[in-house]
Structures are given as C-alpha cells and as structure tokens.
Amino acid sequence: MKRRMFIKKLSAGAVVSGGLAAWLDILASERVFVFPEKRSFELLGPNLDEHIKDGLHKTKNFNRTYNDDVLLNPELYGVLQLTVQRLARLQRLVGYANFNLLGFDDSMKYATSYSRVGAFTKQELDFIESVFFEDASHYGFLGNKVITKLTSNISSRETIKIPNTGHYLFKGQPLQTYNKIKKDVGDNVTLTSGIRGVVKQIHLFLAKAVKTEGNISQASRSLAPPGHSYHGVGDFDVGKVGFGANNFTAAFSTTKEYKKLRDLGYLLIRYTENNPYGVRFEPWHIKVA
Ligand SMILES: [Zn+2]
Fold first, then answer.
1. Which domains, and CATH codes, for the chain?
2. Contact 33, 127 (CB under 8 A)
3. How far apart are alpha carbons 51 and 117 in whole angstroms?
4. What are the pLDDT digits (tens) for 180-201?
5. How far is residue 274's CA from residue 184's CA, in Å, rounded to a whole number?
6. What is the pLDDT of residues 99-136, one digit of tens each?
7. Ligand 1 centroid, distance to 239 Cα (angstroms)
8. Spacing, Cα 194 to ligand 1 middle (Å)
9. Could you give the CA distance from residue 97 to residue 184 in angstroms, rounded to a whole number?
C-alpha cells in the first residue's frame, strides 16, 4: 500500500528517470516485512502517564535495550549490513561532503554506474523503502516527519559549503545563525554536522542500527529515522574544535563553548533533556527550522 502511494507520487509530478522507473517495476512484486513486532506507542490511551514516564526513562538511558524494542529479524539484519556497506562505498565514491547533499535518484545512478559501489539489490531497495515509509512511532520514535519524499532533492544553489568542516548549510537563516555563533562564541566553535539529505540520514540511521545489532528502537533513540531529521530542513550541530566525538555526547554540555551558547540563548534545543519524542538529549543541536 505504501509502495503504491510512493509510485503514485512519483508519477504525479516528480521526474522519473528510466533507471528509477525500471527498478520501481522490479520492486512492485514483493514487500519485505521489516518490523515483525509492531508496537504502537499509544499516547492517547488511558495509560498516558505511564507511557510518558516510560518514554522519558528510555530517552535518558538511550543506549540500553528494552524488552519492547523492535528488532530486525536475522535475514533483514543481513540486508541491513549489505545496505550500509553499499552506502559507505557510495559515500567514498562521491566524497564525505558531497554525500551530505546526495539525493536518492542520484545515489541509484552512481551505484549502478560505478562497479566499486554496485547497484542496490531488490532486497536492499525494498528495505530502504520500508524504513523510510514505516511509521516511526511503531518502534518508539515520536518526532515529526519533516521530509516525506524519499526522492526529495536539495538544490545546491540554496546551500553553501562551510570551509574545513565537510558540511554544508542552507543559505539564509541557518547560515546567518552560524555566522553569528562564530562571532559571538569564537573560533573554538565549529560546524560538526550541517545539511543531511535523505540518503545521508538513511546511512547514519542504518549504520547506527548495525551497531545496535538490528535494534531499530535503540537506534532511533540516538538518531532521527530517515525523513525525521531537521538537518534536512535547516538545523545543524556545533561542537568545540578538537573535541572530536565527545561533541556528540553529554560531555559537550560541560564545555565553555556550550555554556556560552546557552547563555547567549542559542540553545533552543530541539531535543531537550526530558523531551517526549523518544530522543536523547542533544545539547549540540542548533534549532533553526
Ligand atoms: Zn543535530
């Protein structure tokens, strides 16, 4: 059903390339069942308080596993690994920075054209599609979907590459905000993640799901599922120069840079410490969109 909607949307307006149309034909036959244990997070149910308490606990302890987490079955875990490996090869082909902006259709073209990436298999495409169109609340993620088209593209004219970061920002409000932060807080603050297109978010999310051994719920407590990241529409992350991976941990909130950002009012944090969306606290994330 979701696939039919997807095909309909494409034919209704978007440009369907020959290659894309061809693989959509192939896809039309069968659907992999990705989430065998769907569990809805019944926010409107009578146990609202219990659910919220439960959600907050998980948000604070995002790296733990819970017995109602949704897991991929072993067969799909295999498909997940192959998909992540192919996406990693694609990222190497186009380059780290370019990969942030790469659209889905172009990803398909590059993969098919370059043997060192190789065309995505039917199972991999089915899997990607299922992950993108699955209702994320089924596995505990309650944030908004901000990009609804798997094939949505980022226009390079609307973006600007930020030197020495490997990342891009949208011109306009996000760029202005970033420049103001640099001016107010100093050169010790840098962009650690800017615009992330659909394919980049798919790669990040699926790579996280490999690390969680197929636990999609656990992955979604650290990273917004594809289509749900505000990095696709203007938000960005900042960190302290030289702080490395610590910039993406709670340790960032102990730095002078964080305190300055907070005191200057930049941290209208998207996912606060006790957010109700099932996402960990992200003190490095700058909300723009
Ligand atoms: Zn972020």
1. 2-37+45-286 (3.30.1380.10)
2. no
3. 43
4. 999 999 999 999 999 999 999 9
5. 28
6. 999 999 999 999 999 999 999 999 999 999 999 999 99
7. 11
8. 8
9. 26
